[in-house]
Amino acid sequence: MAELKIEFFGSPALRRKAKEVVEIDDELRTLIAGMYEAMYEAEGVGLAGPQVGVSKRVLVIDVKEEAHPRFTLINPKIVDLGKETEKDEEGCLSIPGVSALVERFTTVTVEALDEHGQPFRLEAEGLLARCIQHEVDHLDGVLFIDHLSALKRSMLVKKYKSTQAEEASGSRDRPPARRSG
Ligand code: NI
Predict the structure, then answer these.
(1) What is the spatial distance between Cα 5 and Cα 41, in angstroms, rounded to a whole number?
(2) 123 classed as catalytic
(3) What is the three-state SS of 27-39?
(4) Which residues surround ligand 1, an ion (CB under 5 A)?
(5) What digits encode the pLDDT tens for the residues 42-53?
(6) Residue pLDDT, tens place only, 94-103
(7) Smallest Cα–Cα separation from 133: which of 118, 114, 147, 113?
(8) pLDDT recorded at residue 173
(9) Which one of the listed residues 86, 103, 111, 135 is annotated catalytic?
(10) I want to staple 49 with a disulfide (CB 3.0 to 4.6 A). Which of 56, 59, 77, 155 is the partner?
């Protein structure tokens, strides 16, 4: 399979609602393998199908916590969001070079299928809970900047565009994608 390319802000692929996966077959598993590759290459902690231009409800996540090795979520559904929220720094592989404080639920329960079609349920907190909410948003065409006020969002988009322009001119290195998904 050709190497997957990450779609960047402005791409219509990021705004489409992704379709449910009907068949979990080798073709899908090849896509998933490519998604892990693309995520690690970009040094991210999560990646969703739409971010590689594939309108399927598939996520790969690796927040590099010992208790939670990398895992795949197919057709994920958030079934519980807990009660508390917190703000923390968040970035996105599709909007590289910028980040913002985003309010998310601190705990989340998700149900999904793994790459073998086995259903599982996971209760997550902290960074993992944040990452799951960020990635499930991608499946619905939602980006982390949509959670910001209109003013903060437009400032961030402006910063992103100037960052991209600087990068294109070669005057700036891309900062690490810590906590981006
Ligand atoms: Ni993202």
Answers:
(1) 11
(2) no
(3) HHHHHHHHHHHHH
(4) 92, 181
(5) 999 999 999 999
(6) 999 999 999 9
(7) 147
(8) 62
(9) 135
(10) 56
Residues 6+ positions from 55 with CB-CB distance below 8 Å: 13, 16, 18, 19, 49
**In b/e form, how buried is each residue of 161-175, taking b as 16+ CB within 10 angstroms?**
eebbeeeeeeeeeee
Query: How far is 169 from 181, CA to CA, in rounded Å?
Result: 25
Strand ranges of the sheet holding 58-61, from the earlier edge strand across to the other edge: 46-48, 58-61, 71-80, 107-113, 119-125
What is the CA(14)–ligand 1 centre distance, in A? 9
Q: Where are the domains of the chain?
A: 12-168
Look up the CATH number of domain 12-168.
3.90.45.10
Residue 118, both tokens: 């086995």
How are the residues of the chain apportioned to helix, strand and coil, as percentages rounded to the nearest 5?
35, 30, 40
Q: What does the block give as tokens for 114?
A: 């793994």
Six token digits for residue 138? 């991608």
What's the predicted TM-score (pTM) here? 0.94
Question: What average pLDDT does range 119-140 have in this prediction?
Answer: 97
